[in-house]
Write a structure and sequence with these properties.
seven-stranded mixed β-sheet; 26% strand
Length: 361
């Protein structure tokens, strides 16, 4: 096993340490839980690190992207445009044109408006769509099923844009999801739309069993695949005591660990790795270095008495980590920033720039 402290000594702290062996084991575990003909897609928003993407591609998992930045990352990792599912709740015309120009031909759409937009931008290129339907109560997770049942003809494709399947955010109710899927398939069949594939966001193998003998079923996974593959190694900057309770301020906080990290399913379990643990653990507040109310890791965790300079290892942070911060998440372009000077009518635009996130080897 890799010595995390040695890695941190060489790379410096804070650092994320990714283990490809753990990633392979997670992939094998997911595959083993699926019926033989079911497929997997990986949501790059969970973690687009290029080495992880290459490993995931080599395992035969296909990509799901939500921005032009994620699409670029998928192509750099070796997938072809034809492998990609371009999904998400909405997209700009420029993003569609970029994806179509790079060979993407499968999109998830949420509404008749999105179908119309894709038909306009396809410009003679034949594309396929999965109708993204909200089956889990989130208004951001696709079309309302009742809207599809009320006017199925509006969701039945356009010239050059063929609806070939469904994508559902289905929650945990397998029976309800299977029933809804069957009703949606019937509604679309009434419009001459044969549903060839059904994709689910999240991992629930039982859905595939319930739809056995029907359309091809796939699951879009993120944290299920990569979460266990990374550990964040970070140092303690300061420790303050109030009675028997300690507050430890770490190098890393909300700037290094995305707010989407599922801490209910994977509670934080930091370990002291720079010296042997001694004494009874005490109630601990873990905070980051940003002076904001949300930069708190945990408030009721038990850890040894810490000292400045101690190094902690926080496992299971392979998903929603360093690239899930407010700036880097999902790889979307940041807005341009334009400087003008109204005191100088001849100056016009003084300066235009755009921040970007870059990776340096």
């Amino acid at each position: 096993m890799t010595d995390l402290l040695s890695v941190a000594d060489e790379a410096g702290t804070p650092c994320y340490v990714y283990d490809l062996a753990t990633l392979r084991a997670s992939q094998r575990s997911l595959r083993a839980a699926l019926p033989a003909l079911a497929g997997l897609r990986y949501a790059l928003s969970a973690n687009p690190h290029p080495e992880l993407l290459r490993e995931i591609r080599e395992a035969g998992v296909l990509p799901a992207v939500r921005s032009s930045g994620e699409l670029d990352a998928a192509l750099v990792a070796g997938w072809q445009g034809r492998d990609v599912l371009y999904t998400g709740p909405a997209r700009r015309d420029a993003d569609l044109e970029w994806a179509l120009g790079l060979g993407v031909r499968t999109f998830a759409v949420d509404s008749p408006v999105a179908l119309d937009q894709l038909a306009r931008r396809a410009a003679g290129r034949r594309v396929r769509c999965l109708l993204r339907v909200n089956a889990c109560g989130s208004v951001r997770a696709g079309a309302d099923p009742d809207a599809v049942f009320a006017e199925p003809s509006r969701f039945a494709g356009r010239d050059g844009v063929r609806v070939v399947g469904l994508q559902l955010c289905a929650g945990s109710d397998a029976d309800g999801a299977a029933d809804l899927t069957g009703r949606l398939i019937s509604a679309l069949a009434g419009q001459g739309v044969p549903v060839e594939r059904v994709g689910f966001t999240g991992f629930a193998p039982r859905f595939a069993d319930l739809l056995a003998g029907g359309p091809f079923v796939s699951f879009e996974v993120g944290s299920e695949l990569v979460a266990a593959a990374a550990t964040l190694v970070t140092a303690v900057l300061d420790v303050r005591f109030s009675g028997e309770r300690q507050t430890a301020v770490l190098e890393s906080g909300a700037n290094h660990v995305g707010s989407f990290a599922d801490r209910r399913r994977r509670p934080l379990a930091p370990k002291l790795i720079s010296r042997p643990q001694s004494g009874e653990p005490v109630d601990t507040v873990l905070a980051g270095p940003q002076e904001t109310p949300f930069d708190v890791w945990a408030t009721g965790i038990r850890l040894p008495r810490l000292r400045p300079g101690d190094v902690l290892a926080v496992p299971d942070l392979g998903a929603w980590g360093v690239t899930a911060g407010l700036v880097a998440f999902s790889g979307a372009d940041l807005p341009a920033e334009v400087v003008v000077d109204r005191d100088d009518p001849d100056a016009g635009v003084v300066h235009v720039s755009r921040l970007s996130v870059a990776r340096y080897p």
